[in-house]
Design goal:
Layout (H helix, E strand, L loop, with lengths): L11 E3 L6 E13 L4 E12 L1 H4 L29 E2 L10 E2 L46 E4 L3 E9 L20 H16 L6 H12 L3 E4 L1 E4 L3 E5 L12 E8 L6 E5 L5 E5 L21 E9 L3 E4 L8 E4 L2 E7 L11 E4 L2 E2 L4 H9 L30 H4 L6 E5 L4 H23 L7 E5 L8 E4 L2 E4 L9 H12 L7 E3 L6 H19 L3 H24 L24 E3 L5 H4 L3 H17 L1 H15 L2 E3 L1 H11 L2 H4 L4 H9 L6 H6 L7 H23 L16 H12 L6 H11 L6 H4 L1
Parallel strand pairs: 2-14, 20-21, 21-23, 24-26
Antiparallel strand pairs: 1-25, 2-3, 3-11, 4-5, 6-10, 7-8, 7-11, 9-10, 12-13, 13-18, 14-17, 15-18, 16-17, 19-20, 22-23
Helix pairs in contact: 6-7, 6-8, 7-8, 8-11, 9-11, 9-18, 11-12, 12-13, 17-18
Length: about 750
């Protein structure tokens, strides 16, 4: 029975009972139907028994180390390939076409995330009573609960992995007997051995995931769908350990499903993509959404000819023609990540190619190595994450300043992409590498998404979505947004928040690092960097001040669960606090307060020491989920000087993370940015415009000899500050507005200035 939620609370339920069963790998086999606006097909899920059943675990303990649940250290399945199926949804024996094997992109071995931030609360849902009675009170059947919304589920069955040829190598006994109970145990044993293969056997693991996903069914499972969940049971099975660990689900999405958007691109051609919905991917495929459910995936997607499928995947997929007019695209990942980071975009995208001369220049460019080679001593240590093919352990990957990248866009925007975006990507990737070291992901696709995209950018494993709004008006907005999304590869993807209420860990770090990356990409002098960063700080302070004045206090707290942050219910189910609240989608408080906290710490510690600590944090925690105290404790232990001045984890919680409003330390600093030279120049220009406005208003309609006023050329961020300051005036006459337009050519500026 599904727990009923009060819709007035705007909370999003995470129903999956991850403490009992934890998904380790997804195999998706999908068809995209643009006429019907549906995606339909099959998903096969491979599970491990969860921690709550294996042993009692303690959670929610406050301390310097994340109480990183052993269950969370799930074995990462490796790069994978998917079956190309062509099967009626009701068919009990799917016919699988030959599947193109697993060699493509096999050297690409890393992945993780986004970034999609929500707020989670461990109260509110407890499925142990009605859904998951693993204690067998009253001999109830065990219920597997998956997150699911707006999906038509057609059939669920157990997969007979024991029927796969050569699978004996994953069993402890040489002979497979026909005894029913033994066979059930054997299937689960095979899945366990498969999902726990060592990282150096990822190719073999990939191929066996594929073959197991194609295995015949061995019995339908009972299921019911609710508003937010899919509940599955097998009559007579009362514990997670005995429940089938490989299941196949036939399903279809619905046109109104919130996980994907069906629209047209800027050239008027149909497309569909995941646009970062508050409900994440539960309306795209049945899954386990809690962050702790780190998993790998492989997907085969079929479309009509002319369409291109882009996806979170380590390989740069090329289409394979299955039959006339039908193409198949295949992607995989080997780094375990939350299902919320899975991203897909299907459209008539065109690849924006570099001219050979430009490409040669970029290929031969000398990129800076990270600030200190000593920082890379941590690479020699064993990684702290679950086992997967990790780029931080790969000597070639550690020296790769610019990972392979591609740019896609609708046909009508290709020229604009070539003008700025294509040249900026290697500069920004190199700047990120110089700052943080090894790129967590092996490649990058950048897609200009349709005009209905509601933000400027979104990062997912191996792919970044950018709004068309970043393209006009020079390179500034395009470069800063690109740097922000690239930063999410480390903070939000490679290192994720264990509790979605702490989205500042993703957005605060990305906002702070955006400035560092962009300054290095432009190769600015020390004084230029300082000036630009103080100007940016003032603009962000003004935004934060306005947001705090015009939003609910409870939405302004970065750690709303305080000491309960990271706690889960017994079953693993939880509630994303305010996850469906409409206002929250447009709020920037997690970006801004998080940024100011990190900026304050950098100023206290010194930027060089601070960035060295960030690199150390990345090396220690990549591939893992963290809480705020993991970072703060490591920072203060690594650089003890601030402790002497009274800076502690507790004081940071109290002043920055656990309270609403503008933090007191920030109120004290707010006036200092006005002394920055770039800001003072804007103030002088504002005074000129106000005086000119007053003169024009006083003169009325009388013709008057115009005094020549010389206005200075301003940077885009200076223009934003100028226009914001002028908007605070009671009245500006039409002639002033015309003069502003003409003086600064406002229609030629970037989207932030135009806005």
């Amino acid at each position: 029975m599904e727990t009923q939620l009060d819709p007035m609370k705007d909370d999003l339920p995470l129903m999956a009972n991850t403490s009992y069963m934890l998904v380790k790998h997804y195999v998706l086999d999908l068809d995209v139907d643009f006429k019907g606006k549906v995606i339909d097909g099959i998903i096969v899920l491979f599970f491990e028994t969860g921690s709550q059943y294996k042993k009692t675990s303690s959670t929610g303990k406050e301390g310097c180390q994340s109480q990183f649940d052993e269950t969370c250290k799930v074995r990462a399945s490796e790069p994978c390939c998917l079956p190309a199926t062509n099967v009626s949804a009701c068919s009990s024996k799917p016919e699988y076409n030959d599947f193109a094997v697993c060699g493509k992109g096999e050297e690409d071995t890393s992945d993780k995330t986004s970034n999609h931030s929500n707020e989670e609360q461990a109260s509110g849902i407890s499925s142990s009573k009605d859904c998951c009675d693993i204690e067998n009170h009253g001999n109830k059947d065990f219920l597997l609960v998956l997150d699911c919304c707006d999906l038509t589920v057609l059939k669920v069955e157990e997969v007979d992995v024991a029927a796969v040829s050569g699978i004996e190598k994953f069993t402890k006994s040489d002979k497979i007997t026909d005894v029913s109970k033994e066979l059930e145990n054997l299937r689960n044993q095979i899945v366990h051995e498969l999902v726990t293969l060592p990282a150096d056997r990822w190719k073999e693991q990939l191929c066996y995931f594929t073959r197991c996903s194609q295995a015949p069914g061995c019995g339908e499972l009972l299921f019911t769908t609710g508003t937010w969940s899919l509940e599955i049971r097998k009559p007579g099975i009362q514990t997670p350990a005995d429940f089938p660990h490989a299941i196949r689900i036939w399903y279809k999405t619905k046109p109104e499903g919130g996980s994907v958007t069906w629209t047209t691109d800027q050239s008027g051609r149909p497309c569909v993509y995941t646009m970062g919905s508050p409900i994440n991917n539960r309306a795209l495929f049945p899954c386990q959404e809690p962050p702790i459910a780190l998993s790998t995936w492989q997907a085969s997607v079929r479309t009509a000819a002319g369409f291109v499928v882009l996806m979170s995947g380590e390989n740069s997929a090329e289409s394979v023609q299955l039959r006339e007019g039908i193409l198949s695209w295949y992607y995989y990942v080997t780094m375990p990540m939350p299902a919320s980071t899975f991203t897909i975009a299907v459209g008539c995208w065109q690849e924006v190619k570099q001219h050979s001369f430009t490409a040669a220049i970029q290929t031969n460019s000398e990129f800076s190595l990270p600030s200190s080679q000593a920082d890379f001593r941590w690479h020699e240590e064993i990684c702290g994450h679950m086992e997967y093919p990790c780029r931080f352990q790969n000597p070639a990957a550690r020296l790769q300043a610019v990972i392979p990248y591609r740019v896609f866009a609708p046909w009508c925007l290709m020229e604009r992409c070539e003008e700025h975006l294509l040249q900026l990507i290697p500069q920004c990737l190199s700047a990120a590498y110089t700052t943080l070291g090894t790129h967590p992901f092996s490649r990058l696709d950048v897609l200009i998404v349709p005009s209905n995209f509601s933000s400027l950018g979104m990062a997912s494993p191996h792919i970044i979505f950018l709004s068309q709004s970043v393209l006009p008006g020079g390179s500034h907005l395009c470069g800063t947004r690109l740097c922000h999304e690239i930063a999410h590869a480390w903070f939000g993807l490679a290192i994720g928040a264990r509790d979605w209420t702490e989205e500042w860990i993703s957005e605060g770090f990305a906002t702070f690092l955006e400035d560092i990356f962009w300054a290095r990409a432009q190769q600015l002098s020390h004084d230029e960097v300082k000036g630009q960063q103080e100007l940016k700080a003032l603009l962000r302070w003004r935004r934060l001040r306005d947001e705090v004045q015009n939003s609910e206090e409870e939405l302004q707290v970065l750690r709303p669960k305080k000491e309960r942050t990271g706690e889960l219910s017994e079953s693993g189910a939880s509630v994303v606090k305010h996850g469906l609240k409409a206002e929250k989608i447009f709020m920037q408080v997690h970006y801004l307060k998080g940024y100011f906290l990190l900026r304050s710490l950098a100023r206290t510690i010194g930027e060089d020491s601070y960035l060295a600590s960030l690199r150390k944090f990345v090396h220690k925690f990549h591939g893992q989920l963290v809480l705020s105290q993991d970072f703060l404790c490591m920072l203060l232990e690594d650089i003890p000087e601030p402790k002497k001045s009274g800076l502690t984890v507790e004081s940071i919680f109290q002043n920055w993370l656990d309270t609403s409003g503008i933090p007191q330390p920030l109120l004290e600093e707010g006036e200092t940015w006005k002394e920055c030279q770039l800001v003072r120049r804007v103030s002088a220009e504002v005074t000129k415009w106000i005086q000119t406005n007053q003169r024009i208003r006083k003169s009325g309609k009388k013709k008057r000899k115009r005094d020549e006023v010389v206005f200075q050329k301003l940077l885009p961020d200076q223009l934003v500050l100028l226009l914001e300051s002028l908007l605070e005036e009671k009245t500006l006459c039409p002639r002033i507005l015309q003069c502003l337009e003409k003086t600064y050519q406002l229609r030629e500026q970037d989207a932030e200035v135009i806005h």
